[in-house]
């Protein structure tokens, strides 16, 4: 973490539960998760496949609702917000990076990034401004020569760079990353991790879930998710 980063809590969960009904039985994915994320911190949540890491990240990002408990962002329970306000939270305060990229196949790299600005509904940002920022981010991520290429013409590492640029377009306070190197070979994965290291040095708050101890070791702090509960 940078020396100047403020040690204030930006994101917090309290007694967080998530239960799914499947096959006539309740499946308890999360069982009373309590955690704090500090501004400027890189927090890694380590856990095996199926431990509930992605579910936790989705709840932090407002993509799903908990069965019980709270997620607070800057002391506001996000699940008490109106639908439009929680959409604003998802689109502006947090950015998502997924293992499988989730790029739109019919759009170019540049278009896949700029669409995040269009979805956000930010009427103050013109199309030209969004495109300018998207180009700047892709250039910083070493993708300036691939702006017009569609995802099927990009390597896995290049697709993930596009996904990271998309996540950063609206300048989120918190970057939520779900196994961002899990679909990449070791060398390409390290290149993506180097990007996260540089983002963190610039003060970006990161919450990353991973099954890889090497990845978790790069963070300021790591927690282990096991059987629906967090352990330090």
Quickly describe the structure:
This protein is α/β, with parallel strands linked by helices and 232 residues long.
Overview of the structural elements:
The protein is an alpha/beta fold and about 230 residues long. It has a single domain (about 10-230), classed as 3-Layer(aba) Sandwich (Rossmann fold), CATH 3.40.50.300. Helices cover about 35% and strands about 30% of the residues. It has helices at about 55-60, 85-95, 110-120, 125-140, 155-170, 185-200, 215, and strands at about 10-20, 25-40, 40-45, 70-75, 75, 95, 175-180, 205-210, 220-225, 230. The chain has a six-stranded mixed β-sheet with strand order 6-7-8-3-9-10. Strand 7, helix 6 (about 185-200) and strand 8 form a beta-alpha-beta unit. The model is unreliable at about 1-5 (pLDDT under 50).
What does the secondary structure layout of this molecule look like, with pairings?
Elements: E1 9-22, E2 25-38, E3 42-46, H1 53-60, E4 68-73, E5 76-77, H2 83-93, E6 94-97, H3 109-120, H4 127-140, H5 156-168, E7 174-178, H6 186-201, E8 205-210, H7 213-216, E9 221-226, E10 229-231
Parallel strand pairs: 3-8, 3-9, 6-7, 7-8
Antiparallel strand pairs: 1-2, 1-4, 4-5, 9-10
Helix pairs in contact: 2-3, 3-4, 3-5, 5-6
Notable traits:
232 residues, alpha/beta, Rossmann fold, six-stranded mixed sheet, four-stranded antiparallel sheet, 7 helices, 28% strand, globular, disordered N terminus
**How much of the polypeptide forms β-strand, as a percent range?**
25-35%
Strand line-up in the sheet with most strands: 6-7-8-3-9-10
Distance between the termini: 19 Å
CATH architecture: 3-Layer(aba) Sandwich
Radius of gyration: 17 Å
What is the element string, with H for helices and E for strands? EEEHEEHEHHHEHEHEE
**Uncertain regions spanning at least 5 consecutive residues:** 1-5
Into which percent range does the helicity of residues fall? 25-40%
Question: Can you tell me the number of structural domains?
Answer: 1
Q: CATH top level?
A: Alpha Beta
CATH topology: Rossmann fold
Oligomer: single chain
Please summarize the sheet with the most strands. 6 strands, mixed
Count the DSSP helices: 7
Secondary structure tally: strands: 10
């Amino acid at each position: 973490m940078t020396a100047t980063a403020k040690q204030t809590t930006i994101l917090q969960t309290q007694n967080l539960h998530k239960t799914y009904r499947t096959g006539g039985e309740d499946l308890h994915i999360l069982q009373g998760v309590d955690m704090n994320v500090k501004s400027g911190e890189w927090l890694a949540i380590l856990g095996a496949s199926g431990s509930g890491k992605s579910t936790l990240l989705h709840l932090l990002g407002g993509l799903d609702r908990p069965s019980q408990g709270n997620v607070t962002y800057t002391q506001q329970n996000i699940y008490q917000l109106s639908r439009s306000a929680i959409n604003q939270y998802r689109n502006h305060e947090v950015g998502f990076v997924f293992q499988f990229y989730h790029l739109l196949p019919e759009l170019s790299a540049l278009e896949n990034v700029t669409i995040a600005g269009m979805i956000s509904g930010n009427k103050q940002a013109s199309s030209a401004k969004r495109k300018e920022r998207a180009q700047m981010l892709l250039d910083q991520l070493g993708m300036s020569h691939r702006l017009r290429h569609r995802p099927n013409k990009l390597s896995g590492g290049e697709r993930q760079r596009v996904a990271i640029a998309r996540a950063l377009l609206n300048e989120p306070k918190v970057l939520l990353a779900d196994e961002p190197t899990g679909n990449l070979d070791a060398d390409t994965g390290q290149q993506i991790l180097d990007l996260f290291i540089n983002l963190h040095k610039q003060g970006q708050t990161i919450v990353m879930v991973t099954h890889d101890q090497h990845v978790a070791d790069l963070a300021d702090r790591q927690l282990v998710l096991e059987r629906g509960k967090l352990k330090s």
